[in-house]
Design a protein that fits this description.
Elements lengths: L1 H4 L5 H12 L15 E10 L2 E9 L17 E7 L6 E9 L6 E3 L5 E5 L2 E10 L4 E8 L7 E2 L13 E4 L5 E5 L32 E4 L12 E2 L2 E2 L17 E8 L2 E7 L6 E6 L6 E8 L10 E5 L2 E8 L11 E7 L15
The structure holds beta-L-arabinofuranose (FUB).
The site of beta-L-arabinofuranose has 13 residues, from strand 1 and strand 15.
């Protein structure tokens, strides 16, 4: 208590303490998709008529629970598939290990995958041997891997949470970025600086990034660009507007011809969305997709399967509120007649 008053504990530790007390009393709207291991940050896609999920693989660790995210010490990726919404989930096993990525030292955080011409690509963030987050890519002949990583990170890549969107014309775009432990604030000048530089509360928030992918899917086709997230008056969302500003976990999907850019608000623990007319934005803030889950982080993806839309997300109910031991879940996502996403409450 004294430690809390003196601000000696991190926000992540504070939330974990509260959540471990709350965990047993919550009734979830969805159960963990798997219980034999901890999984987080689920990126879902439909390939060859099946749902494939590419999550992080959470593990026990001695690393401290802090706001830098040291407790997220993941070392490998598994791929999962479902034949239908209600079917058993298949674990295809380990498809890529940090030991097999020449440039990466640790922290294999939230990945995503894409398909082009029958080849599959896994995009992932990891810290290099200088402690800087970069994005890597690995390829495979099957959606369930195993994936073989490129020797170097993607040129010009930085920060975390890659998400790949394929537009109707077959062009792929990669979205990424995350503040705090995700280091986006260290790139404010365009170059990496070994200190955190945040905008003032009344200045525009740090912006997520987007780039087209090259034809071979292995590099950015152009330097990453800012994605503008604006309010109803066309003004950039401010850094102090923590209920709406971008924190991490970007995702893009298209519904009825509109682009939906969604993301986590981090320390206010929401998944929110904004819409626009181009994959580059600007995107106008619209509202909340998912209210806070048990755990500090919230991270999602959205996919359409057989005419229904689904939200893939995670929480910490299975681990009793341990913030770095999360479980992926799935629930239906619906729109109203105007195309607004109806807010999901994760507990009844
Ligand atoms: O899983 C590690 C990190 O936690 C992810 O990269 C973030 O999006 C958050 O979920």
């Amino acid at each position: 208590m004294l430690k809390e008053k003196l601000n000696l504990i991190s926000d992540a530790e504070r939330v974990q303490k509260q959540d471990m007390q709350k965990a047993a009393s919550l009734t979830s709207i969805a159960e963990p998709l798997v219980t034999h291991m901890y999984t987080a940050d689920p990126s879902a896609h439909v390939f060859n008529g099946k749902i494939y999920i590419y999550p992080s693989h959470d593990i026990e660790t001695d690393s401290p629970v802090n706001d830098n995210g040291d407790q997220y010490a993941m070392r490998d990726y598994h791929v999962f598939s479902l034949d239908s919404e209600l079917s058993e989930v298949t674990d295809h096993g380990c498809v890529l290990d940090v030991a097999d990525v020449a440039w990466a030292e640790k922290q294999m955080w939230a990945p995503d995958a894409a398909e082009k011409n029958g080849k599959y690509y896994l995009y992932f963030p990891a810290r290099d041997y200088q402690g800087v987050f970069r994005l890597g890519v690995a390829s495979a002949d099957q959606p369930c891997g195993p994936f073989v990583a490129e020797q170097q990170p993607m040129q010009g890549s930085f920060s975390i949470d890659p998400a790949v969107f394929c537009d109707d014309d077959g062009q792929h775009y990669i979205y990424f970025g995350g503040i705090w432990g995700g280091q986006l604030q260290r790139w404010a000048s365009g170059k990496y600086q070994d200190k955190d530089i945040y905008p003032a509360d009344d200045a525009p928030a740090l912006l997520p990034k987007v780039a087209k992918l090259s034809d071979d899917m292995l590099e950015f086709a152009h330097p990453a660009q800012d994605i503008q997230v604006i309010d109803e008056n066309g003004e950039l969302i401010l850094a102090g507007d923590t209920d709406r500003r971008f924190f991490e976990g970007p995702w893009l999907h298209k519904y009825q011809g509109k682009y939906y850019f969604s993301y986590s608000t981090g320390d206010t623990h929401k998944i929110v969305y904004a819409t626009g007319d181009s994959p580059y934005g600007p995107f106008t803030y619209q509202g909340v997709i998912l209210e806070p889950v048990l755990g500090w982080t919230t991270h999602h993806s959205i996919a359409e399967y057989q005419g229904k839309w689904y939200l893939f997300y995670h929480d910490c109910t299975l681990s009793g509120g341990q913030t770095h031991l999360r479980s992926m879940k799935m629930t239906e996502l619906t729109y109203d007649k105007q195309g607004n996403i109806k807010t999901i409450k994760p507990y009844v």
